[in-house]
Amino acid sequence: MSALFPIFADLKGRDVLIVGGGEVARRKALTLIEAGARLRIVAPALEPELTRLSAEGHVEHVADKFEPRWLDGAWLAIAATDDEAVNRAVADAGEVRRVWVNIVDDARRSAFHVPARVERGPLQIAISSGGHAPMLARHLREQLETQIDASWGALALLFSRFRQRIRRRFPYLARRRRFFTRAIEGDVAAHLRRHDDVAAERALRRLLSKDEDSASGSVSLVGAGPGDPGLLTLHALRRLNEADVILHDRLVSKQILALARRDAERVEVGKESGHHHVTQEQIHTLMLDHARAGKRVVRLKGGDPFVFGRGGEELEFLREHDIAYDVVPGISAALACAAYAGVPLTHREHAQSVQLITAHVKDDESPPDWIALAPARQTLAVYMGVANLGEWRDRLIEHGRDPATPFALVENGSHPGQRVIVGRLVELPERARAHGVRSPALLLLGETAAMAERLHWFGSPPLGAESLPSPLAEAA
Ligand code: SAH
Q1: Does position 88 have pLDDT exceeding 50, yes or no?
Q2: How far is the CA of 307 from the centre of ligand 1 (A)?
Q3: Which residue's CA is minimally distant from atom 6 of ligand 1?
Q4: CA 381, 385, 386 angle in degrees (round to 5)?
Q5: 375 CA → ligand 1 middle, Å
Q6: Residues 359, 464 share a domain
Q7: Domain span holding position 449
Q8: In the predicted model, what is the mean pLDDT of residues 356-385?
Q9: Does 249 qualify as catalytic in the annotation?
Q10: pLDDT of residue 476
Q11: Whose CA is nearest to atom 2 of ligand 1?
Q12: Are 255 and 172 in a shared domain?
């Protein structure tokens, strides 16, 4: 079944024919007159208002039965009689003459449909179900009517009046778009909602003359969460919708990038992307160049930007260079992996605290504080750990952590292909190797990791549960 093709037709000064002179014809006539059509009505008799419109010269009345020749010269025709045969004759004649004919309430025989409409001044939303579910279209219309503020019409008219001036002031699309967003989300629309047209125009003029924040762009540091688009925040979604440029990490999922504004420029700056290596300095330069060009930059990071994401460094840099910024937190891998694996990070009996740590330490940085990591009854959430698991096991046991401490290794947490491998600390690297665990993976180590076996709900069940110490597997 092919879909209908929506168009908004300009009927100003064009001939349109209505067949029928009753109540339905009257309704159609009024909207067509409003659209500026030159209206001719063929009907033996007219109801009172149509009679008046005809007497005042708004419509031409042909007091006759329908004949195909009345379609000649018309661009559109509406058959609004209660005689099915007449309606069909109009449709048939329209086919032959290539005149678009609508039969009121007969979608199947109509060459065009008249949609349900929501109107706010020149702004129109047309809704059609293609004749399949008119009730649904009507229902949707009612919902939109309540949701879309009446001031949108005034806003459209105001923009229309200032159109040339706005274009001259902001010749480039990116800045123009920002100007409009400010007007729509800021004062201008707010004044119109209060019906203060004068203040609205004043606010618009002020926005047009303002230089400072239109001169330079901004950077939003946005956390994209662990991969499942459902875990994005509304703020993140809005930033993605408004972005001119998106500088994203390799870990950010395709589904999330697909939610961003379509014409936003997307640049992958993953430090391990492909064969080239994008340095942190290069990322800084990219942010700066785009922001200085007046763009709205989204620096999109996996998880949360402030958890092993070098977000702090990036903000320091932006601050030094006087670029406006904001930060949208995201769901960090530790939180997501714990939730999606059924591993509570804290637990009244089994885990009093949780530590977020990275297994990946640079030579020039201080080593992990093994003494602090070893005690029982705390959960360790270890990022970037796949390669160093042997050392982690050895050091933790050496410093006194129980070799039987359960772990859950979560690979691709929250993605459709998520895998959870469970076991005990003493066998951690061997188990990871046996299952070929690859990055991105997060290690959850601690008494509650055993609960994955009972509480898991997402994807396939944990692998290796049989080797867990049984009392813990049952604790809950
Ligand atoms: N800022 C990010 C972390 C970046 S460091 C955050 O807050 O989540 C990258 C590490 O995060 C990976 O090596 C891995 O350990 C972890 N990680 C990120 N996404 C993950 C996912 N979907 N599943 C498992 N681990 C993930």
Answers
A1: yes
A2: 9
A3: 303
A4: 135
A5: 24
A6: yes
A7: 334-475
A8: 87
A9: yes
A10: 39
A11: 303
A12: no
Decide if 6 is inside a domain: no
Q: Are residues 343 and 326 in the same domain?
A: no
Atom of ligand 1 nearest to the CA of 383: 15
Q: Is the pLDDT of residue 352 over 50?
A: yes
Q: Identify which of 457, 443, 453, 456 has the alpha carbon closest to the alpha carbon of residue 475.
A: 453
Query: Which residues, 6+ apart, have CB-to-CB distance to 20 below 8 Å?
Result: 41, 42, 43, 79, 80, 81, 82, 86
Q: Is 459 in the pocket of ligand 1 (CB under 6 A)?
A: no
Q: Tell me the HSE value of 196 on the side-chain side, using a 13 A CA sphere.
A: 11
Least confident of 260-269, 270-279, 300-309, 442-451: 270-279
Alpha-helix runs per DSSP H in 98-221: 134-147, 151-161, 163-169, 173-185, 187-193, 197-209, 212-215
Domains identified in the chain, total number: 4
- Which residue, among 355, 361, 445, has the nearest Cα to 403 in the 3D structure? 445
Q: Which of 106, 187, 271, 402 is catalytic?
A: 271
Q: Exactly one of 249, 295, 301, 304 is catalytic; which is it?
A: 249
For ligand 1, whether the C-beta of 66 sits within 6 Å is no
For residues 383-412, average pLDDT: 94
Cβ of 347 below 6 Å from ligand 1? no
Higher pLDDT, 134 or 455: 455
Residue 34 has pLDDT above 70, yes or no: yes
The model's pLDDT over 213-249, given as tens digits with 9 standing for 90+, comes to 445 578 999 999 999 999 999 889 988 988 899 999 9
Same domain membership, residue 248 and residue 193: no
Q: Decide whether any atom of ligand 1 lies within 6 Å of the 303 Cβ.
A: yes
- Domain assignment present for residue 458? The answer is yes
Mean local confidence (pLDDT), 130-142: 91
Ligand 1 atom closest to the CA of 227, numbered from 1: 22
- Does residue 362 share a domain with residue 406? yes
Give the pLDDT of residue 386: 86
Is 271 annotated in the active site?
A: yes
Closest ligand 1 atom to residue 331 Cα is: 7
User: What per-residue confidence (pLDDT) applies to 234?
Assistant: 87
The greatest distance separating any two alpha carbons of the chain, rounded to the nearest whole angstrom, comes to: 103
